[in-house]
Amino acid sequence: MSANYKLVRNPNPNPEESGKSLPLHPRLVSCGTIHTGEFINRAKSRSSFSPADMKGILQLFQDMMVDFLMYGYNVELEGIGTFSVSLKSRPVMEKNEIRAESIHFKDVKFRSSKELRDRLKTMPVFRDEYTISDPAYPSAKECEQEVFRYLETNPFIHQKKYMSLCGCSRSKASLDLRRMVEEGKLRWEKLGTSHLYYKVEEPASGETNPK
């Protein structure tokens, strides 16, 4: 599994140099968002904790973090980083022009730890030739249509074929196929080290699912 990037060029903010291009810089192409359920589902094979235990621990972390931040503490999670609160108010020139009632919570800031940054320094990255802003890149709906069109003449589809059909990365293919399984559109079987995905057939008209 690897991360993909695209090269982008920001518009020149100086109107006097509108014809001058700024240098290209890399930007990560997101594969999507791992939500709590998926995070726990993947973590359970690497831990002796049950999914319920992990969900409870995450909830406890959230509750305690809120408590500490609310009372003015920074919260450092070793190996991850430090969370802190920022405030907002209307602009004033003198301290006596504003009262505590006019100062409010703004956001939670995160500063990554050195350990986390060091562990990510060796992350492999590859150029993504197809990006969401590129009209040649198919949408999620178009990818799904391609999958079921392929399954009309083939018994199953695997990850590499999905990557070929949709021009996407391995990690995005994995997430998309897993989503279609969770939505009940596909089912999967493991053959050796490969996952094969099959179309879920709907019951014929008049048939009922056995209880």
Automatic annotation (TrEMBL):
Pfam families: HU-HIG. It comes from the Bacteria. GO terms for molecular function: DNA binding. Residues 1-24 are annotated as: Disordered. Keywords: DNA-binding. Residues 1-123 form the HU domain. InterPro entries: HU-HIG, IHF-like_DNA-bd_dom_sf, WH-like_DNA-bd_sf. The keyword Cytoplasm does not apply. This is DNA-binding protein. It comes from Parabacteroides distasonis.
